Amino acid sequence: MNTILMILGQVIIYGLLLLGNEYAGFMLAVILGSIAFFVWGISYIVEWIQPSRVTRNYYGFVLSCWVGPLVALIGFTFLRGGIGWLS
To answer: Is residue 12 one of the residues assigned to a domain?
Structure first.
């Protein structure tokens, strides 16, 4: 439940950033989302190779850090019909 609330909160925040300044919001969502995705991926692979005592909450937090911006970007792009600063 906390993961869903974190994703929803991030979608709202990134959506407001995209409405305010589309270029800055897009770049912030892409950069922070990709960094969080690679951290999540590397930590998941390392956990698969050698199990540690990291709680499952950690993976939920990092998962929400890259799913939130992704959902916001996809929703914003579909609702606006494209990315305005690229055209």
So the answer is: yes
φ/ψ region of 52 (left if φ > 0, alpha if ψ in -120 to 50, else beta) reads beta
- Give the per-residue pLDDT at 17: 94
Q: Which residue has the tokens 């914003």?
A: 76
Q: Which of 80, 72, 82 is nearest to 14 (CA)?
A: 72
The pTM score is: 0.84
Asked if 24 and 32 count as a contact pair (C-beta separation under 8 A), the reply is: no
The total number of structural domains that make up the chain: 1
Residue 24's domain spans which residues?
2-79
